[in-house]
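Researcher: I need the complex structure. Ligand is adenosine monophosphate. Inputs:
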Amino acid sequence: MELDEEDEIKSKNFHELELDDRLLKAIAKLGWNEPTLIQEKAIPLILEGKDVLIRARTGSGKTAAFALPLIQKILVNKRMQKKQQIKGLIVAPSKELCKQIYDVIMCLTTKCYREVRVIDISPQTDLNAQKPLLNEMPDIIVVTPSRLLQHLKAGNMMLKHSLETLIIDEADLLFSFGYENEIKAVLTYLPTAYQAILASATLSEDVQALKRLVLHNPAILKLEEPPLAPPTQLAHYTLAAEETDKAAILYALLKLHLIRGKTIIFVNTVDRCYKLKLFLEQFGIPTCILNSELPATSRCRAVTQFNSGTYDIIIASDEKALEEPHVIKTKKDKRKKDKESGVARGIDFQFVSNVINFDFPLDINSYIHRAGRTARGKNQGTALSFVAIRERPLMEKVEEHLKGTYNCENLFKTYQFKLEEVEGFRYRAKDGWKAVTRIAVREARLKEIRQEVINCEKLKSYFEDNPRDLQSLRQDKALHTVKLQPHLKDVPEYIIPSTLKGIMGIGKRKRKFDRNAASSGATAVKSRHQARASNPLISLEIPTKK
Ligand code: AMP
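Model: Output:
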């Protein structure tokens, strides 16, 4: 059965999906009013016991589309069978994704957590440390393929006679991450009959192969969505900026609160992540970082901190800069490269108002992938790209492609920004950018690694035996890779363009403005622009003096 849901109008609500009251209560608590399209279609099929192939991207609500019926089935079975067993297995390609899935299930089981227990065993702690958790036979296990295989081989879990549902999420990534053999090996530990669900953003050949391997006569749900939200929901801006000016413009936009709401800033290399972080840090603009070279725990932490609002800005480097052909040499290399490339795929960044391409992405897919982090669900969003002259051809290619997709002429609007009006910012930024030397970047990266070593569970006992080693690592912690000058955190009145002073009530409210300047929150500025649009990022023309 193949369903193509492109234009179908939703008709059901959650109450019509025959879900347990406890699930409905949890859904209500989450504030979900109605099922997404994929949930409406997938939940009944999974409850019927069918194998299902779901093609949908992150943001479609696919996690709950498979998690809700899984929990429902467990609740129903518990009424008849009291024996505690592992019933559901959810396999995902990265620890971040596992944690994300686990968090969704925890939210959905708030009203039945005694009946349905879930654990995430993807963290690389000692296998034996996780064994007691597995001995308790949780109902649902979330895990990466390699971790799962380790436990199966160690005999820490038996699934042959209990498992009822296997769910493989982000199936296409599993293959590109090089998990093919692990998956095949895992299948030998499973019962001969079980219900299987495969979720994937694409139906690549790899996914087709996996489908043949695990699915039996599946229903195929394809969610035909446009790659990005329509221009009425997602505004695309470009801002002409040469390399030397990009940092100054970003600094001014953030400090003048012309960028409001949660923001992802994309750069093309890992080093640029750190460079930009250290640059903004000097002006009291806190950011967190996401890149492929960070250990998984740090990446998880960064996403959590961003989603929970600890940071309003995350700086991410995406894959393309790492995808030079020479990187792929051996199978081992392929795996490394692809793991890197998928760093932000599938991750659910929540409530992102703005995506800023500090470096213009190197191809169309990358642009779509980045811009697609905002304007999720029914929310508005803005993608603002800084475009240097050398990046113009890339931008034109992307615009051409998107114009075709959306059948509209002026998709990329020009963000009017006159740098000469913010000369003071430019001046400060120049020094700030120069202060972040290559050595400072290297040291920041080393610092990150040291911190990870200190936090590493596996080294805990080593440090207990060798406290002096821990001490010396801790001393390194104090290292500031760029000297911070406290005065840079404030924005002196004289560098604020006169056109903005009135709007911001500078003079009367200067002190407050300075204090608030350290955050990119939306609350500080009460301007006529605030009321102007639901669009969280405002195109503001700074007129030149006559
Ligand atoms: P997913 O595609 O599963 O990563 O979900 C994307 C986002 O949609 C998550 O932040 C979910 O919390 C949210 N979500 C899932 N289902 C619904 C729904 N029915 N209504 C509103 N938000 C939802």
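Model: Summary of the prediction. Confidence is low (pLDDT under 50) at residues 1-10, 320-343, 507-546.
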